[in-house]
Write a structure and sequence with these properties.
Shape: elongated
Strand content: under 5%
Radius of gyration: 23 Å
Distance between the termini: 63 Å
Number of strands: 0
Number of helices: 9
Structural class: mainly alpha
Order of helices and strands: HHHHHHHHH
């Protein structure tokens, strides 16, 4: 039951392709908008109307890509839920595993509340090869950080999650547990990339709507750089979105 089905393996590969597909939708939109902008036979009104049509169509394509990705992610999650329930071989042993993980989390939570850093708990569990504590941290630490009163609790959270997942791999039991854990870690990383790509592309569409001339010029410049370097640069880069939007807002204030 814990064997990862071929259909879901294909779904996982499809999810891995989502960032490239999202970037291609963005690239195609840029090309169409540039063609409209440079068409001297079109009036300004016609250019605006055609450009809006292209943006709407690209938005629909991105929405369809997002919906398809979510559907396939849900299918994989359903398998993960079922596999997790059966990975210990019986209902009794599974219940015991869940109870141990729950107790491990309660111990970890007490340490966190007392001021112990997640990194210290992870390191101790790694050295002790304490699989139950590591699994508990993977399951519960994100929610704990989101609900913490102190913003300090979120410092280094991404690094802590990377560390605990790496430690979990090192201490993973053999057998059915292994298939579940491998797939879970891998799909989690893939889905994070999917969410970043979809969000980044949607942000690019938004900038094209709010400041089409500036964003189109920027995108075409990046495409030129891409051709020279042979590396994809069209999609918005992490950390650049806020900078771009800040510049746009300053430009609007100046106007």
């Amino acid at each position: 039951m814990t064997t990862f089905p071929h259909k879901l393996q294909q779904y996982e590969m499809d999810l891995e392709d989502v960032p490239d597909k999202a970037q291609q939708i963005h690239r195609d939109l840029i090309a169409k908008l540039a063609k409209v902008r440079d068409d001297e036979d079109l009036t300004a009104v016609a250019k605006a109307r055609i450009a809006e049509t292209h943006r709407e169509k690209a938005g629909q394509e991105l929405a369809a890509l997002k919906a398809d990705a979510a559907r396939k992610r849900t299918a994989i999650q359903e398998w993960q839920d079922e596999a997790r329930g059966q990975r210990s071989g019986s209902e009794t042993s599974q219940l015991m595993t869940e109870q141990r993980v729950d107790r491990a989390w309660r111990r970890a939570e007490r340490l966190l509340n007392a001021g112990t850093s997640p990194g210290q708990i992870i390191q101790a569990a790694r050295e002790a090869k304490d699989w139950h504590t590591l699994q508990a941290l993977v399951d519960e630490l994100p929610a704990y950080v989101r609900g913490a009163d102190s913003p300090k609790s979120a410092i280094g959270h991404d690094k802590h999650m990377q560390d605990v997942r790496a430690a979990l791999k090192e201490t993973r039991p053999d057998g059915p547990e292994k298939t579940y854990a491998v797939v879970s870690d891998r799909v989690s990383a893939t889905w994070s990339g999917v969410e970043r790509a979809l969000s980044s592309t949607a942000a690019g569409f938004d900038r094209l709507t709010r400041n089409p001339d500036r964003e189109l010029g920027r995108a075409l410049l990046l495409q030129d750089i891409e051709k020279q370097n042979g590396k994809p640069t069209t999609g918005p880069r992490r950390g650049q979105q806020d900078t771009d939007e800040g510049e746009q807002d300053q430009g609007a204030d100046a106007a």
